[in-house]
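Supplementary Methods, section 5.1.

A reviewer requested that the exact input to the structure prediction be made available. We therefore reproduce it here, unchanged from the version used in the analyses.
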Amino acid sequence: MSSDSIESRFDREIERLGIRIKDVDQLKVRQDVFDEVTLLALYRLVHKGWITAIGGSISTGKEANVFFGEREDQDLAIKIYRIRTANFNAMTEYLIGDRRFSGIRKTRKEIVFTWTRKEFANLKRAREAGLRVPEPYGWDRNILVMEFLGESEVPFPQIRNVELGDPDSVYQEIISFVKILYQKAGLVHADLSEFNILFSDRACVIDMGQAVTLDHPRARAFLARDIANVNRYFGNLCSVRTTSDVFEEITGIPLPGRGVPG
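The structure derived from this sequence is encoded token-by-token as follows.
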């Protein structure tokens, strides 16, 4: 199906379902985003009452596009994983070993659907542990609907683009996040960096799709990498603890092996 026909169908179906389109010029309907599967998932979410308006792009990442949306008077972030261009191999690395999602068929479509469901589950666990991540509202196939972190339709900036007044307290806050995520939520973020920490009056962590449970065979290696990434970024802003010291405090065991920056 051509991109023109997909665009026409998208416009017709959106109109039929009564969804308002905000910022039409910013909503670039591309074939690799709003394909047949994605349109079906969107229809289902609308029927469930999760989406009443869809707007412009918030971000475009390696695996997904995030759009601003609304549910009546509630602001939303609508994350759409791209089925055709998603990194199938990278996703599989984080899914294999997670017993919550064992037995899935290893087709591209099934992997992406499972990844979306996994991010929903991870966000829910983190929220239940009292952590500041987007609240997940609903999902269908390759679309995740969640809390919009921002104001006046403008998302909070990545922490790398913020001049922190007290970087030491923010560093401690993020280390505390990693600790609570591990000890209370039973998860390791597995890709934590200055690119997926937003900041307003406090730090907010996003992109939880790759987060793994503690029984994942690489959970501790991912944890050490997360700590090292946080130390690398904050090392130029304030005093940081060693990776091994933080790792041992969180897990109760010494950091195995070497090769992770201190």
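The mean pLDDT is 86. These observations are discussed further in the main text.
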